[in-house]
Amino acid sequence: xxxxxxxxxxxxxxxxxxxxxxxxxxxxxxxxxxxxxxxxxxxxxxxxxxxxxxxxxxxxxxxxxxxxxxxxxxxxxxxxxxxxxxxxxxxxxxxxxxxxxxxxxxxxxxxxxxxxxxxxxxxxxxxxxxxxxxxxxxxxxxxxxxxxxxxxxxxxxxxxxxxxxxxxxxxxxxxxxxxxxxxxxxxxxxxxxxxxxxxxxxxxxxxxxxxxxxxxxxxxxxxxxxxxxxxxxxxxxxxxxxxxxxxxxxxxxxxxxxxxxxxxxxxxxxxxxxxxxxxxxxxxxxxxxxxxxxxxxxxxxxxxxxxxxxxxxxxxxxxxxxxxxxxxxxxxxxxxxxxxxxxxxxxxxxxxxxxxxxxxxxxxxxxxxxxxxxxxxxxxxxxxxxxxxxxxxxxxxxxxxxxxxxxxxxxxxxxxxxxx
Length: 420
Known about the structure:
The protein is built from 14 helices and ten strands. The chain is of the alpha+beta class. The chain has two domains: 59-161, Phosphorylase Kinase, domain 1 (2-Layer Sandwich); 169-412, Transferase(Phosphotransferase) domain 1 (Transferase(Phosphotransferase), domain 1, Orthogonal Bundle). Strand 3 and strand 4 form a beta hairpin.
């Protein structure tokens, strides 16, 4: 039988235990509430920084950004980019859609930050989505790498890898023409491989629409990378033609069908590459009114030299040494095939790579200006049978390129192997 004193002590101990438990529960509940409130405030503050106005993002753009967050590009804040670019002080260049600034992140990675601007938010959104949805999903040694993007009310920007030597045009048309012919040929081959990857190896074919020297960037070792996908368009492989809502491309490089009511295919990039290739061969602009009239339009002058059998003279005028003349002649023939008036007469880009690398025989091209001669009523001396080029597969022509062909399983699920 317990004594009264023992019973009293047990009751006091039990009461103290209950009191402690109550205190612990209250503290835990308060801490939980405090953590939850802080977390919600942090989320609200973050959202306010990115979207200060709930009306800022259209439904389409909101869904697009959510989709892209599941892709590879990183989403940067405006503060991160201002710090990296020292508040946008080092301007690398500017164009119709924005200005490009040099930057460096804390880990030492150098970048080029393209700040988008335009006449309307709709145009900026179109430019932004075109670049991120195309180059943001693919990786190839000869395509400019997109590190990430920023889309805030006060800053819409794209973050690319930094290319030390800038664009190809300054080495073709500027005073600094220090690149030798073999280096230029390597640049042409690398550019062709990048375009071939866009056309033939991506899950969805990507048409660039604006291939020109200013959009071919060179790294520290003068390796080329295709850049500026602001006009690019994704298209399913089942669709043989693309619907256009307006003209695209740059005059002088844009294929005839881009300015006429003709069906559009990826062959418009082949035409632009041919015009680019001619400028690489001549180290001059295709149209130069300071030259004699016969040489004013370089593509026509080149064709006339080829047609008359004066290729040696052409090589001499272009400054191609004798040891490089076989290579130069291959480049000329390839360019003339690429700029054929009819899209189906132009080769696929994987075939262009083989032609430039000497992996296939190049037949004499027909007159690429025959259609213009017919329209003007001039006689056409070239009566060659029209050539059409069939589709090529991964295994057919890019064995020495920097892309790696996906397996059938990878193709089925749209998995792409990155090359480096």
